[in-house]
Amino acid sequence: MDTEHDWITTPVTADLLRGALDVERTEHGVLPHRLPARARAQNTDGQLAMAESQSSGVRLAFRTRATAVELDTLPTKRTYVGAPPRPDGVYDLLVDGRPAGQGTVTEGNVVVIDMMAGTAEYRPGRVGTVRFAGLRAGDKDIEIWLPHNETTELVVLRTDAPVEPAREPGRKVWLHHGSSISHGSDAASPTGTWPALAASLGGVELINLGLAGSALLDPFTARALRDTPADFISVKIGINLVNMDLMRLRAFGPAVHGFLDTVRDGHPTTPLLVVSPILCPIHEDTPGPCAPDFSGMSNGRLRFVALGDPAERASGKLTLGVIRDELARIVRQRAADDPNLHHLDGRELYGETDSAELPLPDDLHPDAATHRRIGERFARLAFGADGPFAATT
Fold it and tell me: What are the backbone angles phi and psi of residue 22, rounded to the nearest 5°?
């Protein structure tokens, strides 16, 4: 802790947080969750448990005259056997809505994952501190966006002036659900994920339920969307169902209908946008499952390959092409009685021309530049004058 200031210590409480659906009290402080306790209690999958506890879209928001801010956190990081260390998660500082700094916390717990052996070892660590200094004097609204790819327990906030919860922003709320691409995958920082970029360009408040590896039409996720107040909602469906080889076409259609029915139980007239997958060449016509290729791990390169056989489409196996056709059909059918239901082909966000210019580095996830492109296009297509969310914004 910096001792040059007369610090005021503020416990982190739910009223200082945005983008979380639940806040759990822990031994060290509080842990934001992106799924409510009821949903977490019904989940038995470790991947989803990890994903929902990572803080994509979650930020502290407060008003203060402080010129220096410190936040103590206990991150949980991941490292992979045989691969170079992953970079520490980034904390983005916004002052009055504008970028004003970045920081990292090097300390924390570590989960060592051996993808070849299918094992994970938890190594406890210690609390660390991210610091921001030299902020302008006077009242200001501060947001600290937490790392999108780390589980982050919040211990305490220190400032050199009192803080109070941020004023209501007066913006509409956009609730989004999707896969690791929506979660943030290889974005450079939490405000650089495509949903965060789109929300900023659209002038809206984001609640991001992008769940890496876990956009699987789970009923408890649908209920979380149903029960979360929002002015508009989008659901991006497809890639995880294919790369996990989770279901066949016979089950997919009814599962989509059931998911949308549940969302509509809580939001009967809210603009609802169904987004099909962006282009992913390995799964366009080849079913899953998807598996990692470890041959480049020692050089820091991990790629993914599709293990299915294109001929298996005849027996109902899913590909991205099959899913896009089925989603378009389902939305057309439902929109006859639901004028606020809309469809967006994910290839309008990232398609063949984009793939040639900005190929997916691991054949599955977009990089930072591609996140920006997707975010800009979504903002134009959804929040623009002719978009399904235009009237609401």
Answer: -155, 155
